[in-house]
Amino acid sequence: MSDTLERHEFGAEVGRLLDLVVHALYSDREIFLRELVANAADAMDRRRFEALTQSVSAPPADAKVTITPDKTARTLTISDPGIGMTKAELAQNLGTIARSGTRAFSQSLGDAKAEDKPSLIGQFGVGFYSAFMVADRVTVTSRRAGSDESWTWASDGQGSYTLEQATRDEPGTDIVLHLKEDADEYLESYRLDHVVRKWADHITVPVAIVAEGKTETANQGTALWRKSKSEVTPEQYTEFYRHVGMNFDEPWATLHWRAEGALEFSALLFIPGMKPFQAVEGERASKVRLHVRRMFITDEAELLPTWLRFVQGVVDTEDLPLNVSREMLQATPVLTKIRRAVTGRVLSELGNRAKDAEGYQSFWENFGPVLKEGIYEDYERRGEIAPLLRFRSSAVEGWTSLPDYVSRMKDGQEAIYYLVADDADALASSPQLEGFRARGVEVLLLSDHVDAFWPEQLGRFEEKPLRSVTQGGLDLSKIAATEETGEAPASVESLVTALKAALATDVADVRATDRLVESAVVLSASGSGPDLQMQRLLRRAGRGAGGLPILEINPRHPLIASLAAKAEAGEDVTEPAGTLVDLARIQDGDTPRDPVAFARKVAAALASGG
């Protein structure tokens, strides 16, 4: 045993705290490497900073963090030519849990100019102890820049540590992890490379891995988002876009800016040029990466709302407070402000690009259904999202917007009308449109999975209410017809009375309507309840039918006129009443009440030549 060997007890309740670090503080074991690389990068930044103001030599020009696995010795070594530590600093920084030399150094910077301050990562003094998640013994040999002495700190994490004089030719630190039996994966260079690229790809300090005698750089070493736009080429943007999102295409939009003032952060975001292979409709969380001082922290910070989850990229800040693990973010006002600012910037970009109808079309066809979710989910942003929406229409080819619809509204038209159905192709020929088409009234045709939900949440646009054409009680009488609506209407009072009695369990009401031209019947919903599409969704979800529909009959149709005459003569119309309901259901893409009975009835009618 060396004459300089000293044994010390940890300066905290080490057993409980180390157990917390190893088993509770970090959810992912590989985090240990991020923490040790972060500490090494900090040490190099500190040495550079002190070289500006004190008689300390700067790190060599080719300075880097070096990671060396040794399968024979079962050790993993992380070395850096950073500021190093004295004997006293080893005892203070590593011998007292939750004491952070980085934090103390940050506080000591005082009035140093902002541009001279190094960008430091560590804050809480516990990251080093994550090494014990994979190691049953750790040794740290360090030499402080400006000193000739070297010391080795060593511990098995069981309550004490030793300090012993050592030899190190240059300033810096070597951390040697004696790996546990179940940590063999961290002796493989490809695994180490993956971890570094995931967690530390863009810190400015080079990180190299030694494998089979060769030293290979593992991180990109440059944070594009911290550069000015004039310094980044389109090729670099595309390369980074493909790297961060695992994409193969070109970005449809690139957003690169730095927010300064009370809130400071850098952002580099991309809107993809094509749908990802895994549909964003299924993934319900934003995966924009949060970095703090270039170091990747998490992609689960929800920096954008779910309805912008197709956006990819990085947000990097100096100011965001983190908890001790850096994995669970505190709910701070700073994070809230960053989210608000980033969301606003993305919406502003979409608004500018929406002015180019042709260019915007590709975005909309890729991500329109996701953006619509914002109307349903985000009350505060609805007014900004609504003009960005695009729709198919009964009146124009291609896509149209709500502002364009309003500009085409007819004299006397008081509402924005829309029709929702599962089948986009069937919408244009729906009987629900006949009366609107006869009056030249445009109807928006909606067939995305979210279209049954958001219109009611939006409610109005430019003071015009949104109304589903399947809701009963629509009054089109103020709008003059532009087409002939058919024969003179038959008197249907007796038929209405008979149909109400025959269909008492199937419909809520029967009424004559002037919004049909070619069809005999149509179903509608109560004016105060959900429309027909929502009722169908409720039935499929087992949450009730949402109320019985209303059967509307066309007094100008020959079939209705014929049945009206029979009812007037006192004949029984019970059987044709049921057929009318089934026909109306089929027209709306639904099934007959009893498909087998309906098929038999149709077959019998065809056989009899009826």
What topology does this entry show?
Elements: E1 6-9, H1 14-25, H2 31-53, E2 65-70, E3 75-80, H3 87-95, H4 101-108, E4 135-143, E5 150-155, E6 160-166, E7 172-179, H5 189-199, E8 207-211, E9 214-217, H6 234-245, E10 251-259, E11 265-272, E12 289-292, E13 295-298, E14 312-317, H7 333-353, H8 357-377, H9 382-385, E15 392-393, H10 402-407, E16 416-420, H11 424-427, H12 434-438, E17 443-446, H13 454-458, E18 460-461, E19 464-468, H14 493-502, E20 509-512, E21 521-524, H15 532-540, E22 550-553, H16 558-568, H17 574-587, H18 595-607
Parallel strand pairs: 2-8, 12-14, 16-17, 16-19, 20-22
Antiparallel strand pairs: 1-6, 2-3, 3-7, 4-5, 4-7, 5-6, 8-9, 10-11, 11-14, 12-13, 15-17, 18-19, 21-22
Count of runs of 4 or more consecutive helical residues: 18
The chain-level structural class is alpha+beta
- Helical content stands at 25-40%
Report mean pLDDT, rounded to a whole number: 86
In whole angstroms, how far apart are the ends? Answer: 109 Å
CATH architecture tag of the largest domain = 3-Layer(aba) Sandwich
Could you name the ranges where pLDDT drops below 50 across 5 or more consecutive residues? none
Number of domain units = 3
Q: What best-fitting shape do the alpha-carbon axes yield?
A: elongated
Return Rg in Å.
35 Å
> The biggest beta sheet, please?
9 strands, mixed
**What is the CATH topology assignment of the largest domain?**
Rossmann fold
Subunit structure: Homodimer.
Binding site for ATP: 35, 39, 80, 85, 93, 100-101, 123-128, 173, 326
Keywords: ATP-binding, Chaperone, Cytoplasm, Nucleotide-binding, Stress response
Domain Histidine kinase/HSP90-like ATPase: 28-183
